[in-house]
Amino acid sequence: MGFENIKENLLQEAKREEKRILGEAEKEASSIINQAKEQAGKIKTEEKKKASEAVERDRHEKISAAKLKSNKIISDARNKLADYSLDEIWNDFKESPKKKGYSVFLKKQIKDAEKQLGKNTIVTINSSDSNTVKKYSKNIQKAGISGGAIISTKDKNVSIDSSLESIFENNREEIRGTVFKELFR
Fold first, then answer.
1. What is the spatial distance between Cα 62 and Cα 73, in angstroms, rounded to a whole number?
2. Which of 21, 73, 81, 162 is the most buried if burial means most Cβ atoms within 10 Å?
3. pLDDT tens-digit profile of 83-121?
4. What burial class does residue 164 get, using C-beta atoms within 10 Å of its C-beta: 0-12 exposed, 13-18 middle, 19+ buried?
5. Which residue(s) pair with 150 in the sheet?
6. Cα separations (Å) of 80 from 47, 73, 76, 83, 117?
7. Distance of CA 55 to CAs 45, 59, 66, 114, 171, Å?
8. H/E element holding 161?
9. Rounded distance, CA 172 to CA 83, Å?
């Protein structure tokens, strides 16, 4: 029976060793699983954070793009309204020859220009102003201007453009600024 006892002892020792090794393996496996779960949790949290940041960036980009688009639409609408207003102001301004005080304005423009250019000038006007201008200027030409006058030397080397078109164009940006102030304050 000695051999049986040795065999039995070896089997029991092997079973104990097997249990110990299995216990250690289970502990190690459990530790590895816990570390993997922890690592997976960290990765999941990190990926959620990255996804959230990407969504937030995308949201901000879309909001910024929408704001830019709306600002452009508003700006375009304001510019169209200002252009329309400038057209209306021009339409009213070119009707100046029909208004009271125009002949005094026209005479002053011509006389001031003649002081600078000398008496022998050519006065270019529209056809409806000829009767008024004939009273104080001799050399008159007619042109397709809305009103006012273009006064030039006889050789036409120097001229002063006091036509309504020129006056309006020379003051367009100032008028536009005033229109913007009045419309969009």
1. 16
2. 162
3. 999 999 999 999 999 999 999 999 999 999 999 998 789
4. buried
5. 124, 161
6. 49, 10, 6, 5, 41
7. 15, 6, 16, 73, 51
8. strand 159-163
9. 11
Enter the DSSP assignment of 127.
Answer: G
In this structure, the strands spanning 159-163 and 148-153 are antiparallel
- Put residue 157 in one of left, alpha, beta given phi > 0 → left and psi -120 to 50 → alpha: alpha
Quote the pTM value: 0.66
In the structure, how many helices (H) and strands (E) does the chain have? 5, 4
What is the C-alpha separation between 41 and 28, in angstroms, rounded?
19
